[in-house]
Design a protein that fits this description.
The protein is of the alpha/beta class. It folds into 2 domains: 8-307 and 353-409 and 438-455, no CATH class; 313-343, no CATH class. Helix content is 27%, strand content 26%. The protein contains 10 helices and 21 strands. It has helices at 67-76, 110-128, 222-236, 272-290, 318-324, 330-343, 373-385, 413-418, 421-425, 440-455; strands at residues 8-15, 24-25, 36-37, 42-49, 54-60, 87-91, 97-98, 132-142, 146-153, 156-162, 170-178, 200-205, 218-219, 245-250, 256-258, 301-311, 349-359, 362-366, 370-371, 397-400, 409-410. It has an 8-stranded mixed beta sheet with strand order 6-5-4-1-8-11-12-14. The chain has a 4-stranded mixed beta sheet with strand order 16-17-18-20, covered by helices on one side. Strands 10-9-15 form a 3-stranded antiparallel beta sheet, with no helix packed on it. Helix 3 (222-236) packs across helix 4, helix 5 (318-324) runs antiparallel to helix 6 (330-343) and helix 7 (373-385) runs parallel beside helix 10 (440-455). It is globular, with a radius of gyration of 21 Å. The two termini are 21 Å apart.
Length: 460
């Protein structure tokens, strides 16, 4: 390491748009493959090193990634010098990305899957070749286009806009600056301004990337990719080359979506121009926040993970599956019967990975599915309560709800009690035996907090 007191980082990016029409992932109502490309789907990698520990964060424009894909990416990236267990693989959850998981029992294109995994791994390797000293800073802004999508009704819980429901409209930004940037000559309004363009910007927002919905058959990285392009373009307009590499980290937005409504109050598909507008709103806020961030040297990097048990609340028997095999959920029942025939029994729980990355004073917590907001907020509070993070001092916690596997919706106990699509019926499309039980929330929260406790308090 060039400096004994300063983290190093490197970044790289690759395009992972298929070269031919493949099925899209995210909406089971689609029929047929993609008809074109609205914008390229991409993958970015950030590699960080403190001289003792090396870690990587991957951000991919994909709807999901199964744990098998994650492990193959980790293994193929070994030339980066990053241990597999230290690679965090996140996916934006774009609903206009190529299909790479057997969502709703749709067939995955094996040739594309292998190429995509290899390309992402090579991106990690490329990032590791560009390590240089960096400083880090964090900031928070706000954008208001996300909304809670669950409304209690006399007959249950409906998927409708709930402006009074729990939502997180924060735009969280982690700025990575070159370590040799000159010191600020003074201040603006009492705070110093950055004296160089950033190397990378990590940003997080809590909203499903489902602006275009099932009517669109075009590849797209959705609003997160549009926001990345806006951020990079704003730096290019100021004389930069390509602009900093922007990485979108999906927050816990399992129960949040774009607040796009029809005249009757129901959710609707956005237009391509509206997708551009949301990208401008988010991307410009990212830059606004980043330009008021004060970066400083960070010294310590630590990574930990734990496998947690996520029990199902109900597992069907063979008779129940056979009764369902010819009905609307026949694709699910036949998949379960096939598993039963090969293995003799259906699993009663899922094993899933919780991963925690500590970068100086800041935390990135990765959870393995479509995590609802309540769980992410509980982890943030828990880190503070255990004395592991201090927001008053400027410590930031990013809870990533979509990383290192794709087990389906991971709901808080309160959401499970209310019922509705996420906790009660989504498991069919994710080809799980049954819905997850209320034990999921404490398993994820306590698992993340225990790993963080093992890593120690944030850097002072």
């Amino acid at each position: 390491m060039t400096s004994a007191t300063q983290l190093q980082a490197g970044v790289a990016q690759a395009t992972i748009t298929p070269g031919r029409p493949l099925l899209l992932e995210g909406y089971s109502a689609r029929h047929g493959p993609a008809t074109g490309t609205l914008d390229d789907v991409e993958a970015q990698a950030l590699v960080i090193d403190d001289g003792t520990t090396r870690a990587a964060v991957v951000a991919a424009d994909l709807c999901g990634l199964e744990s098998g894909s994650v492990e193959r990416i980790r293994a193929a990236a070994k030339r980066s010098g990053v241990p597999g267990e230290n690679i965090m693989v996140t996916y934006s959850h774009s609903h206009s990305a190529p299909l790479v998981t057997p969502f709703a029992a749709e067939p995955v294109d094996g040739e594309y899957l292998e190429w995509m995994e290899r390309t992402i791994a090579e991106t990690v390797v490329a990032a590791s070749r560009h390590l240089a000293p960096v400083t880090l800073g964090v900031g928070t802004g706000q954008v208001g286009f996300t909304v809670n999508r669950r409304v209690r009704t006399a007959s249950g819980t409906a998927m409708r806009a709930n402006p009074l429901g729990l939502a997180d409209r924060r735009v969280r930004v982690l700025r990575v600056d070159p370590g040799d940037a000159p010191a600020a000559p003074g201040t603006l309004g009492g705070k110093p301004l950055p004296q160089a363009d950033p190397v990378a910007i990590l940003f997080s927002y809590a909203c499903h990337p489902g602006v275009l919905r099932g009517e669109s058959y075009l590849y797209s990285g959705e609003y997160p990719a549009a926001a990345r392009r806006v951020a990079a373009a704003m730096y290019r307009a100021n004389g930069g080359d390509e602009g900093p590499l922007a990485l979108f980290l999906p927050a816990c937005f399992g129960n949040l979506r774009p607040h796009l409504l029809a005249h009757d109050g129901s959710f609707r598909s956005g237009t391509q121009h509206e997708l551009t507008v949301l990208g401008r709103l988010l991307g410009s806020e990212v830059v606004k926040v980043a330009e008021r961030v004060v970066s400083s040297p960070m010294h310590r990097l630590a990574v930990g993970r734990r496998m947690v048990r996520l029990p199902y609340s109900h597992v069907p028997d063979e008779a129940e599956l056979r009764r369902s095999a010819s009905g609307e959920k026949g694709f699910w029942a036949r998949a379960m019967l096939n598993y039963l025939g090969l293995n003799g029994r259906l699993p009663e729980a899922e094993k899933a990975e919780v991963q925690v990355l500590k970068v100086g004073r800041h935390w990135i917590v990765a959870l393995p599915g479509e995590t609802t907001l309540e769980i992410g907020l509980s982890i943030e509070r828990g880190l503070v309560e255990r004395g592991l993070a201090d927001p008053e001092r400027g410590d930031m916690t990013l809870t990533v709800g979509y990383a290192n596997g794709y087990v389906g919706y991971l709901c808080s106990a309160s959401v499970i009690t209310e019922g509705g699509y996420e906790p009660a019926t989504s498991f069919y499309e994710y080809l799980r035996p049954g819905p997850f039980g209320p034990e999921v929330e404490p398993a994820l929260v306590n698992g993340a907090l225990d790993v963080a406790q093992e890593l120690g308090p944030s850097e002072g």
